[in-house]
Amino acid sequence: MIRCREIGPADLDAVANLLTRGFVRRSRDHWVNGLQRMAAREIPEGFPRFGYMLDNQGTPVGVLLLIYSAQGDASGAAIRCNLSSWYVEPAYRSYAPMLTSVAQRHKHVTYVNISPAHWTWRTIEAQGFHAYCSGQFFSFPALSHVPEGMRVEVVQADAEVIDGMSEADVALLARHAACGCLSLACRTADGRTFPFVLQSMSLRRLAPIAMRLIYCRDVADYVACAGAIGRFLLRHGRFVVAVDANGRMPDLIGFYRRRRGRKYFKGPQRPRLADLSDTELVIYGP
Questions:
Q1: Which InterPro entries match (predicted)?
Q2: pLDDT score, position 74
């Protein structure tokens, strides 16, 4: 009687209950708020809005949340899917492969797993995934040089136009600000404007002082603007920014940790570093 099907709006309460049982450190409100954001966001046509569930006579006994987004092209030519939270009730674990096989069946989609527990790495690799990020560099941006005339502005959720920035970048900054991220526009003296999205980290020891870099166009942009961003954050009590990296970043002051922050992908397009936009970290929270 077990079948795998798409999660629909009528399933959300039961799915939130299941996830609350499966992830004991997460409150029910955490899942409800994230599912509400999923219900309202735009997704590429033809893909599930929430993900898939194992249905036992109308009751969810397993779930795999999926977050689809069009990358760089509104036509949907490049589709990314964030394989998010996975949980199956112990009595139904033998049916778990149904979820993963259905969820990963599109060959033209790039699937990413950005929060794998270290004990799952071998299993993920056996499924054909490859690591594209091996760790995180914890930078101290306030110690970087600030180019003359560079300034940082906060972008609010209702922003529509920003001088020197494309409509797509403005929409991204506003969308992420609405999800509780810190969206910034960094302006240079020669008129260039760079978008950045940062988010508070959930690690208990680092939460009061650290931010995670969610998005920038290129890691080189962060290196160039690190000093101005660091001075801005320092005024708000934050002095560490974690950046996805594959080793030390010689142009920044900080330290690299290999076991924290590994991320995997499977599909036609290798994800770039410093782009966690519209992923589970944003939609569901850190």
A1: Acyl_CoA_acyltransferase
A2: 47
Whole-structure pTM value: 0.92
Give the pLDDT score at 77: 64
In the chain the first and final C-alpha atoms are separated, in Å, by: 35
Task: Say if strands 193-200 and 182-187 run parallel, antiparallel, or are unpaired.
Answer: antiparallel
Distances (CA, A) of 238 to 161, 199, 249, 255: 28, 11, 20, 16
CA 154/CA 156 separation, integer angstroms: 6
Q: What pairs with residue 152 in β-bridges?
A: 186
Instruction: Read off the DSSP letter of residue 199.
Output: E
**Minimal CA–CA distance to 220: which of 180, 170, 186?**
186
* Contact in structure between 172 and 275 (CB atoms under 8 Å): no
Rounded to an integer, what distance in angstroms lies between the CA atom of residue 198 and that of residue 226?
12
DSSP string, 96-111: HHHHHHHHT--TTEEE
Q: Is 76 helix (H, G, I), strand (E, B) or coil?
A: coil
CB 278 within 8 A of CB 171: no
Closest CA to 125 of 136, 113, 137, 135: 113
Which residues in the chain show pLDDT less than 50? 74-76
Angle at 46 between CA 41 and CA 131, to 5 degrees: 75
Residue 38 near residue 9, CB atoms below 8 Å: no
Q: What is the Cα Rg of the chain in Å?
A: 19
C-alpha distances in angstroms, 171 versus 8, 183, 263?
27, 11, 26
Q: Do 106 and 268 meet the contact criterion of CB atoms below 8 Å apart?
A: no
Domains annotated for the chain, with CATH where assigned, are 2-134 (3.40.630.30), 136-261 (3.40.630)
- Rounded Cα distance between 124 and 116, Å, is 8
3-class state of residue 251 by DSSP: coil
pLDDT tens sequence across 85-132: 999 999 999 999 989 889 899 999 999 999 988 888 998 999 899 999
